[in-house]
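Hey, can you fold this one?
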Amino acid sequence: YSNFIDDLRVYVRGGTGGMGYPNLGGEGGRGGDVWFVARERTTLKSISEKYPQKRFVAGTGANSSVKALKGEKGKDCEVHVPLGISVLDDDGKQIGELNAAGERFLAARGGLGGSLATNFLPCKGQRRTVHLDLKLIADVGLVGFPNAGKSSLLSKISHAKPEIANYAFTTIQPELGKIMYADYKQVGV
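Sure. Predicted structure:
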């Protein structure tokens, strides 16, 4: 259970826009956006290991210049997340969810580039901390008295490795396991 992560807190920030060019009325490029993209064979644990800082920042928009009056948009940041994710803000309110492969959620929008409306100064991108919450629903649950053999049964029918001992209340945290069948069907226990 300690190797399994079902909730991850990450910081996301959209890119800052590019500077405008006041002499010729040039507009700076928009900052990049941060996107969560649902992808199979991805886990929250792999995200945590690959990005230990848990910070995702999009690219800055290009400045306007004489050669390019309209600056290019900043590079988007795509974060691959597992299927069945609820995206929650810091207050615990759900702001989105990703259930199917390829679904996308805009986590942080990039700032506007400098233009006449902003006195040719760029705007900062949206920044916030969000929680990625994995929605888990087990197919089967084992319930019984202490020392009834629930952990022993779980270890024999699945790939789980629960602690098994000859005293009551050995299992302190829930144990998760998967039963794999020959036809590749899986049952969560």
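The CA atoms of residues 161 and 184 lie 21 Å apart. Let me know if you want another pass with a different chain boundary.
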